[in-house]
Specification:
single chain; 542 residues; Spore Coat Polysaccharide Biosynthesis Protein SpsA, Chain A; 7-stranded mixed beta sheet; 5-stranded parallel beta sheet; 14% strand; globular; binds magnesium ion; binds zinc ion
Length: 542
């Protein structure tokens, strides 16, 4: 142990189940063996973002293998249902309580001494230091020049605020409501967060620790798929203005060139259709010249003839260089359509250019103990007793145009204590007494079932949001126990806990927002709700 008390920190790792996670945990756990055992993370959370389908985990009954090191680190898992790394990191850090949160990618390795240097980085932070970036090292092969994909990974070394290893102060994350979940990919979400944290008056600095990011074999079409990032560039421009690239210290990119290439191909096609051979030939020549130039730029820094893998790299570069300009332009147009709400933009689009977080459009409510007094495994409609002020609070939300849904665990069905018809009869009585709800999401499973829907899993909340046509981050969840809060956090919704005498004290302490009753819970959300109906301007994401 060093003489100064170490600053407690949480490690949050989003993953889609890549085996490299175990290697990360081995190198993290290995840090603790030496004299720096005081620098162990206080909390380790894995945000398991493998997707779900139809209320079942896609990889049903197969929990992530965190390895022996994961066990020694007491790593906890939050399942986030395939909502992307920004959403997964949010669910991760919101389920921790340490004053610092260190985001690591699941494909980095920590060299020995990392924890010691991290402790120094955190120990030297000023009160207004909001984030401290790790330095990334990408080892490249020494017997040949790097491939296009390897050079792409190596570019991380110069990237500002990359979340491959980035420490944020909890209060800074809370102030800006964490990552913007409208960024669905591992692209630009880190730069967006950094810009908002700085806009809020925090300093971001480079630390002393270094993290190793190995290059890994990539699929042949990876460079083509990466063009989806052009959608995120459209979102960045909408959120941070035309000067966003300078502010985020990122390069200009090749989009303009790609647009010219696509235009040349368009001229060639139009010339051919109009039977103007000279125009067609000029367009084709321009297109071919630009495409070959792109190929040359990508091949020249790469492996040489005779190097291992040269032929494969050349083939990969040839077909992707022909396709990339069209993909880049197409994705950029789709991105602009989404942020501007052009006709034809995907319904329920994640985008929009309101500041993060956008206003709440829906409130999802737990049934037993929240809407109605809890009668365990109740199958009798006559036993339904609404909680105090529930009807008035819900009607106020309805008047305002807020969408309502119910998310309820009914394990009595799975246990054989209740029939689905009895549950439906009770639900109908609840609507009779409390008014209509836009969606009812019921989990009939027992905890042993391991389903994706039963709270604290996020499935019911995600299904309710989808049924109402709003993204989960525009939903609040009001419930009476910790499972309601955790389901909301895992789904990216805003939780409010309304404790009852059965609610555990620890659950009350862990909840970010607590209200004494349902009307007070609705009141606590008032500032974040959509503007009252009538004056609302395109608030719906549908
Ligand atoms: Mg309840
Ligand atoms: Zn279930």
């Amino acid at each position: 142990m060093s003489d100064a008390p170490a600053t407690p920190y949480a490690v949050v790792v989003p993953t889609v189940g890549r085996p490299s996670l175990q290697r990360l945990f081995e190198t993290l756990d290995g840090q603790a063996g030496g004299p720096w055992s005081g620098h162990r993370p206080a909390e380790v959370v894995v945000a398991d973002d493998r997707p779900t389908t139809h209320g079942r985990w896609d990889v049903a009954d197969r929990p992530l293998d965190l390895g022996a090191a994961g066990d020694r680190l007491h790593a906890r898992v939050v399942r986030t249902g395939g909502r992307g790394p920004a959403a997964a990191r949010n669910a991760g850090w919101r389920s921790t309580s340490s004053p610092w949160v260190v985001f690591l990618d699941d494909d980095v390795e920590l060299p020995s001494g990392w924890a010691e240097l991290l402790a120094a980085d955190l120990g030297e932070a000023w009160p207004r230091t909001g984030g401290i970036q790790g330095r990334l090292h990408v080892p490249l092969p020494d017997d040949r020049r790097p491939t296009d994909a390897e050079r792409g990974t190596a570019g991380l070394q110069d990237a500002a605020w990359a979340t491959a290893d980035m420490a944020y102060r909890r209060s800074a994350l809370e102030e800006v409501s964490g990552f913007d979940e409208r960024f669905p990919r591992a692209y630009r979400e880190d730069a967006d967060l950094a810009l908002r944290v700085r806009d809020a008056g925090w300093d971001l600095v480079r630390g002393t620790r270094t993290t190793v990011h190995p290059v890994r074999p990539t699929a042949d079409g990876a460079s083509l798929r990466a063009q989806r990032g052009n959608r995120d560039d459209a979102t960045m421009r909408a959120l941070h203005g035309p000067a966003w690239r300078e502010r985020a210290a990122t390069g200009r990119g090749l989009l303009r060139r790609h647009a010219v290439t696509v235009a040349a191909a368009g001229v060639a096609a139009a010339g051919a259709l109009a039977r103007r051979p000279a125009v067609a030939a000029a367009g084709a020549a321009a297109w071919a010249g630009l495409t070959l130039d792109l190929l040359r730029r990508r091949v020249v820094p790469g492996p040489r003839p005779g190097d291992e893998g040269f032929g494969a790299e050349l083939r990969r570069m040839a077909w992707t260089s022909a396709a990339i300009p069209f993909a880049a332009v197409g994705h950029r147009i789709a991105g602009e359509a989404a942020v501007r709400g052009w006709p034809g933009a995907r319904a329920g689009s994640r985008a929009g250019n309101a500041p993060w977080p956008p206003p709440l459009a829906a409130v999802l409510l737990d049934r037993d103990g929240t809407l109605v007094h809890d009668v365990p495994y109740n199958g009798d409609p006559d036993a339904v007793r609404p909680t105090t002020g529930a009807r008035e609070a819900l009607d106020a939300l309805r008047t305002r145009g807020v969408l309502l849904g119910v998310v309820t665990n009914q394990s009595g069905v799975g246990r054989g204590l209740l029939t689905r018809d009895q549950v439906a009869a009770v639900d109908a009585r609840v609507e009779e007494l409390l008014g209509p709800f836009g969606t009812w999401q019921v989990c009939p499973h027992t905890p042993e079932h391991g389903c994706a829907c039963r709270k604290p899993a996020p499935g019911l909340v995600l299904a309710a949001a989808a049924a109402l046509g709003v993204p989960p981050w525009r939903c609040a969840v009001i419930g009476d126990v910790g499972a309601d809060v955790r389901a909301a956090v895992a789904a990216g919704a805003t939780p409010v806990l309304v404790p009852t005498p059965v609610t555990r004290q620890a659950e009350v302490e862990a909840a970010p927002l607590v209200a004494p009753d349902l009307p007070a819970a609705v009141g606590a959300l008032k500032d974040r709700l959509v503007a009252p109906a009538g004056r609302a301007r395109g608030g719906g994401a549908a």
